[in-house]
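Each record in this resource describes a single protein on a pair of labelled lines. With that in mind, the following record should read easily:

===
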Amino acid sequence: MSETVSPAGKAPGRADAGGPDANRWKALAFIAIAQLMVVLDATIVNIALPSAQQDLGISDGNRQWVVTAYALAFGGLLLFGGRIADLWGRKRAFVVGLGGFALASALGGAATNEAMMFGARALQGAFGALLAPAALSLLAVMFTDGKERAKAFGIYGAIAGGGGAVGLILGGFLTEYLDWRWTFFVNIPFAVVAAAGAYFVIREPKGGRNRSPLDVPGVILSTLGLVALVYGFTRAESEGWNDTLTIGMFVASAVLLAAFVAVEARVKAPLLPLRVITERNRGGVYLSLGLAIIAMFGLFLFLTYYLQVVKGYSPVKTGFAFLPMIAGMITGSTQIGARLMTRVPPRLLMGPGFLVAAVGMLLLTQLEIGTSYAAVLLPGMLLLGLGMGTAFMPAMSLATLGVEQRDSGVASAMVNTSQQVGGAIGTALLNTIAASATTAYVADHIGGASGRAQQQLVQLQGQVQGYTSAIWFAVGILVAAAAIALTLINAGRPGGTAVAGSSDAAAENEAAVPVAMH
């Protein structure tokens, strides 16, 4: 692909208005390392949790806070983090986020009591909320050529989707062969390499900062509203949906987020300009992606328990059992999504992608105690990964395509917010469905079980019944995500047809780059 040479005779590929940055592919490598670190952290700690709980004397009632403290800080501060990236500059926010994440990880690995652990996890979440939108928005402003953007977001989408499963493998290895503390310490080399590379390689395009004063009421309302929402779903998982505080959290969240929207419609420099989410295509992406994550996060949880508790797999073997899903995601993202993204409209990748994933889920509803891994789990996970990878890739790109540069950080934050909130909802909602189905099954069948062995068998059958009941709901959620993608998203192929609602500045920037398919 030829690169532009500016009229002044500058070397090709310099980071200016005349053409793309020559170092953009090197920059992508370091952005990918950072994204992998953040996504890994979502699952790697889950495998280490039982060992950490025992070492630090964390009670059963408090152990959820190792996961919840991270989720609350990350989910609650994402919009603020995206706005800070637009204000400071994405490169600076990216490097600061990496440094803070590494320090918080070191603190978590060195934790001597539960308070230190919970504090470290909250800090990780806060710096992750700065880092994640900065990473995605850097890609959005550095890759403007249609075909290159497809490849870059293909790689990013594969990591975003498959990184969680990689975390299960790495977490298993580190916990089994070293120590649970290494599930924290392993972040430090990732962060150091990514920060050093970013500092020397990334050249952010000029003129893309949003120097408007910070919308303080918006920050407070959005943070409190999102924290209340995530905590409501997290609490529902452990305390039930009828719990007074759970209901109070949902009511508070609805009031705070409604107030946030009202404030954003009136202030001069909003934290989340409503133009970012009311544009039809981006709204469709945020909604369908959030639904797909609900289905997927619940499945990760069930399959981990099924493989370890029901099938008796070790943590390492469980991690390896997820490899077909990772392979499917990488193939779907880099080989199908990236190759077709410049040829077909995004909805024709996202809709069918979610449907293929739903077929994979449908296979997994057939799980029983003695189910063959090769006959059911392998093809189910392969199809799930293939479909999700194909759908994630155009979703990641379309979510930031056509936004003004000054809004790219907050648009990227919305992608991450839909993922984080979707993850919290998925874990709580599907876990509750599974627990109810298990309880009902055991109550119906335990009376006919004679002897301890028979009773244990009924308990295991009840667990599997619970997982398959919840997976049926996940199938329905994925079909709904496909319907939303096919109905709401009407953009043409990226690089070929302008996205509705794109700014003049973005259109000019696109036109300045010679794209083969224009």
Q: What stands out?
A: Residues 1-18, 495-518 have pLDDT under 50 and may be disordered. The first helix runs from residue 24 to 56. Residues 53 and 63 are 7 Å apart (CA to CA).
